[in-house]
Write a structure and sequence with these properties.
By secondary structure, this protein is mainly alpha-helical. The chain has one domain: Four Helix Bundle (Hemerythrin (Met), subunit A), CATH 1.20.120. The protein is 61% helix and 7% strand. A hairpin with a 4-residue loop joins β1 and β2.
Length: 170
């Protein structure tokens, strides 16, 4: 069951994992970050841009954020400058944690209805499922970015949830 405590825990994990990826990514050259590496979104930079784009898309539905520009297919091209991408990531993580602090069980238990650009139609789904998808999407693509960063020669800190946010887990 998705609870407010779960959402707060995952928001904290999201923020910390992004810090643990963006630090090593920043130590790489821009050329290394943008090198095509055979991943789904191609490069480290494009993968990180896609994650941020997806976060903005879901938060536009969850919390009224402005929708990110372009379509899902264009998501990896958002914010071509790494410093700008990093600043936007830090801002988004703080905003996600603020949102997580405000969520209650009543909000979680209600359905969400939105127009899906990917499907080209209106969709209705339980918010609990969509929140699980939101955090799973981040984790999935961060795993790809982690592998790409490691393959490029940089190391990250631990990635295990229970080691990262023990004080948040209730």
């Amino acid at each position: 069951m998705i609870t407010p405590a779960y959402i707060r825990t995952m928001a904290a994990y999201n923020s910390e994992m992004n810090r643990r990826l963006y630090g090593p990514a920043a130590r790489l050259s821009d050329e290394a970050r943008k090198a095509e590496r055979g991943a789904f979104w191609g490069s480290i930079h494009k993968t990180l841009a896609h994650i941020l784009w997806g976060d903005h898309a879901w938060m536009s539905r969850f919390a009224g954020w402005e929708k990110p520009p372009g379509s899902l297919k264009e998501s990896a091209s958002w914010l071509a400058d790494f410093a700008e991408l990093n600043r936007a990531r830090i801002d988004a993580d703080a905003r996600i944690e603020d949102w997580a602090a405000s969520v209650d069980q009543r909000w979680i238990d209600a359905p969400l209805i939105w127009f899906s650009g990917a499907l080209g139609r209106e969709v209705s789904a339980p918010r609990s499922l969509l929140v699980a998808h939101f955090f799973n999407h981040q984790t999935h693509h961060r795993g790809q970015a982690h592998a790409l960063i490691t393959a490029a020669g940089e190391r990250t800190d631990d990635t295990d949830l229970f080691l990262i946010v023990p004080d948040v887990i209730a």
